[in-house]
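Per your request, structure below.
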């Protein structure tokens, strides 16, 4: 059955539409932190549909909200008042930390970042954008144009002029050997120097933890130090929270809060986990930035009633069950467990991350050279062990990405760690 479906997939879908595994997997249903394939095999899900199933598969509260809303009305567009959209916008505006916030809903993180770029360039009357090396912001024309990861950027054509700055990766590049404080100082000096050579850009866009880049991040406080420089030049700060938002990092509800000493970002983008699988993305910005557009605009599918009902139910569950706290506690245990089991595995350079957003960097033993073949082999081996994980990384795809639903239990964390250890040892 899988071969038949794969043949049909190849016949009608693009060649560049990536599939995991030599023998691609059809997931038919899920419950909690587990999913099943078409052959009836059960897997512990440590990737959550690319960090999107944030709370749990088939969460009854979300299922009930979607079902009830579908029985009333599914969609009407933004041309009409929409109570669930207003209610979710009120919650997100209040939780964003941005003063006098306005919220615009989209259908994806790509579209959210595209909107943020539209706002920033219009507000600043500049098409110049600062972005981080090793970054990923989506697959639209403008988002691809600012992505600093060649594996996910198929063209250099862009409506924007993009300049890339240092700082997104702590353990690679010219500043890798510095202390945290010296690393931040060097990156700030680089930013200052760059701004001295160019016309003032519209914005800096940055992921607090780089997702597709392999869950890399700078020391806490880097973007706060950047913000001080940016504010002097009038440059906006866009925090891309598509993967880091909603408490996944455990320590904070938003990733930017680890860099919040000089205030919140001007624009915040979100998506993925808030819908627990439903298509929700969005932008939060202070009102003068959000309202800078001087032409009409609507969203046909952004903020539609059924997705907003799902988002409200999912956010309520997240807060009421303190899943941010669970991500901090269980994620901390999982990180330490993974560091212990990989300490004697020469292919593992480091285990990094925060909360339930964990990266395992693989190298060729005895070197600093990326090892994408090992990452691909571990991905396959983990599947055989009943564990689904992701992969990513800049320069080469050599980082394993671990991001289970935030309701993960301690027992499931131990189970997943044991399966990953067996997978890592099997490739030697």
């Amino acid at each position: 059955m899988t071969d038949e479906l794969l043949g049909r997939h190849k016949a009608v879908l693009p060649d560049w539409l990536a599939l995991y595994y030599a023998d691609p997997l059809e997931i038919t249903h899920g419950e909690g932190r587990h999913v099943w394939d078409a052959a009836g095999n059960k897997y512990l899900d440590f990737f959550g549909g690319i960090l999107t199933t944030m709370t749990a598969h088939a969460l009854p509260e979300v299922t009930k909200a979607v079902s009830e809303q579908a029985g009333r009305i599914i969609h009407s567009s933004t041309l009409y008042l929409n109570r669930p959209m207003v209610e979710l916008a009120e919650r997100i505006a209040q939780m964003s930390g941005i003063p006098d916030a306005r919220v615009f809903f989209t259908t994806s993180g790509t579209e959210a970042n595209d909107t943020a770029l539209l706002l920033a360039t219009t507000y600043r009357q500049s098409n110049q954008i600062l972005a981080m090396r090793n970054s990923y912001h989506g697959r639209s024309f403008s988002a691809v144009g600012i992505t600093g990861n060649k594996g996910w950027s198929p063209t250099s054509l862009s409506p924007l002029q993009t300049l890339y700055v240092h700082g997104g990766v702590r353990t690679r590049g010219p500043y890798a050997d510095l202390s945290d404080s010296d690393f931040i100082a060097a990156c700030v000096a680089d930013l200052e120097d760059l701004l001295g050579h160019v016309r003032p850009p519209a914005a800096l866009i940055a992921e607090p933890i780089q997702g597709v880049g392999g869950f890399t991040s700078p020391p806490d406080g880097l973007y706060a130090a950047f913000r001080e420089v940016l504010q002097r030049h009038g440059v906006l700060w866009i925090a891309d929270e598509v993967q880091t938002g909603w408490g996944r990092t455990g320590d904070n509800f938003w990733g930017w809060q680890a860099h919040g000493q000089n205030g919140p970002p001007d624009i915040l983008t979100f998506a993925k986990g808030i819908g627990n699988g439903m298509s929700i993305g969005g932008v939060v910005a202070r009102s003068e930035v959000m309202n800078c557009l001087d032409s009409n605009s609507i969203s046909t599918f952004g903020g539609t009633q059924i997705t907003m009902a799902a988002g409200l139910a999912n956010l309520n569950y997240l807060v009421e069950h303190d899943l941010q706290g669970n991500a901090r506690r269980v994620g901390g245990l999982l990180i330490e467990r993974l560091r212990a089991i990989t300490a004697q595995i020469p292919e593992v350079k480091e285990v990094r991350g925060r909360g339930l957003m964990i990266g395992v960097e693989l190298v060729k033993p005895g070197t600093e050279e990326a090892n994408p073949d090992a990452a691909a082999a571990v991905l396959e081996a983990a599947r055989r062990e009943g564990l689904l994980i992701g992969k990513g990384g800049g320069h080469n795809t050599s980082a394993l990405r671990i991001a289970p639903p935030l309701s993960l239990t301690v027992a499931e964390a131990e189970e997943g760690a044991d399966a990953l250890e067996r997978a890592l040892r099997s490739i030697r």
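The chain is about 35% helix and 15% strand.

Regards,
D.
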